[in-house]
Amino acid sequence: MTRRQERPLVKITDVARHADVSPSTVSYVLSGKRSISAATRQRVERSIRELGYRPHAGARALASSRSNVLALVMPLRSGIHMPVQMRFAASVVTTARTHDHDVLLLTQEEGVDGLRRVADSALVDALIVMDVQLDDERAPLLRSFALPSVLIGFPAEAAGLTCLDLDFTATGEVCVSHLAQLGHRCVALLGSPPEVYARGTGFARRTAAGFTAAARRFGMVSTVRACEPGGEAARETVDALLREHPDLTGVVVHNESALPPLMEAFQRCGMRVPEDLSVVAVCPDELAESAAIPLTSVAIPAAEVGARAVGLLMAKLAGRKVPEATWLAPRLTERASTVPRPVP
Amino acid sequence: MTRRQERPLVKITDVARHADVSPSTVSYVLSGKRSISAATRQRVERSIRELGYRPHAGARALASSRSNVLALVMPLRSGIHMPVQMRFAASVVTTARTHDHDVLLLTQEEGVDGLRRVADSALVDALIVMDVQLDDERAPLLRSFALPSVLIGFPAEAAGLTCLDLDFTATGEVCVSHLAQLGHRCVALLGSPPEVYARGTGFARRTAAGFTAAARRFGMVSTVRACEPGGEAARETVDALLREHPDLTGVVVHNESALPPLMEAFQRCGMRVPEDLSVVAVCPDELAESAAIPLTSVAIPAAEVGARAVGLLMAKLAGRKVPEATWLAPRLTERASTVPRPVP
DNA sequence: TTGAAAGCGCTAACAT
DNA sequence: ATGTTAGCGCTTTCAA
Q1: Is the distance between the Cβ of A41 and the closest atom of strand C smaller than 7 Å?
Q2: What contacts B189, CB < 8 A, 6 or more positions away?
């Protein structure tokens, strides 16, 4: 058995004694909440370093009623593209660390009770809630909490909440607008799996709404359909789509998992991309870039969303006012998958 | 502005007064650390419910030196298949909740400092460390910690540590053995991206070692190569492979991200699966099942690994002895992608 | 079976 | 610019 380095726990009084100051001075050096002479600060910092002092998180939380921990509530359910979630989580953790906070991971499953639990026990100072539904039952709860929170996505009734998301309505519009400029007249949106629409996920519906509205404005023929993942489903979807719309020349795909099988299915049906069919994806840039045919796309800015969510929370914790709604503007990048409409 | 439900924080003394007992009795009802008469227990439980009491996490941590939080250190780097990580994380969180613990998410990037930080500050009671390298610098640190930890994966020197993983050596063997029984004589392993081997990731090397050893035992011709993700890379890999081994009839793919492009590349080279080429995958069952051709596979048991990791930690926290090494036995499921070797 | 009371290590109000 | 000290809310000895 290796010997355990059972460090006897250095406390603030040890540091104080070592630096020949009072405990409060050490505390203030650490928090910066009052001015300290340069000489004292240096002595204290030196003692902290030499003794390897680390404040006890629990004691600190008890005395200050701040845990310096954020809760991140993540979905781990089907129909959601995991890599996007992970990028988001990574960005939240990294940004939180930048503000001296840690991140507690909660699953969607714990639902309303989970939120109440971490809030009431003062385990966390603030909450980030992902995958918000239009009729999300957590929305009213969060509104009633004293704890600051940020929702990723917008419930139907968002007043009194701080919400943040890519502007999916504008995203749908931007995609259509791009295709319209290239001369396309008949377009389709291939979206999330049916269950995502069914459970009232705002982003899926908003993309569809933006897409349809813009297509109408441009006088285009347009159609929207949900899209299961998997090769089988992709082929069926594409078959049906081409049967009903033989003169289709442009599609928008808003479904990361279905993207590769859809691309394959198009080829099989004799629709070459981009010669016969222009494709715009809504997906992370990395995915669009590394596709067999690099895809024109609107990026899902997971890292930016994560960073901004934490930023909003920090502002709220500092007592600053923040805007209730933040819609991130879509950014379309042209790549190889979209070209002017082939002459008929 | 909505009125905040600024609940005035119910504390243990409030419950005690309400139930007409002492605070310690309430504490003991909650912890079960001493016997309480049925009558008292019921009164206390009722008061807890009526007042909506939730112990203050920080106060509890301070008084008991237990935070009831586990740290989960996750990789968020390239060459790792995100969905597997997420399943694992989900399983850790869910299992931890089962034992009344929460999970703090740390990124690999924080490295050794991150571990020291959460350990020294008593933020967490125990650690789960994923994506362990053969020469992982965190291994000696964890060995020296008083905090219990479990590593997912094995460093080169694992003595004195609690490690847990799928038995990848056996996995490589099982795959080869299955192909051997079907009469295949020339086989290849398509593995992780080169950088994964380069940084000394044990599981990639172990699969290769098991694969090669078993192939030798069966007197088969075998080859191993790293495999970048992406369609381009897949095609090149397959081209080169078939050029060098024209009589190849079986492959093992241990790389989730490369799986779809590889399957496509095989088709393009005129190798139909399974008629011309038998394929065994090492990947989550969901992925193997939902492929265009359902794949014979060895499952990556992410959920089981997560649950067992937490179980081991709970045992250690309870002062029980646990085995240092836990190798989960591989389980191969036959599906449509493997058949007897075509008669030459 | 239950209660009283001494801390756990830190912060922040109050002093100086 | 710094020190003193009273808690923060809970667990756990020690007593009864």
Answers
A1: no
A2: B172, B175, B207, B208, B211, B212, B222, B223, B224, B225, B251, B252, B253, B254
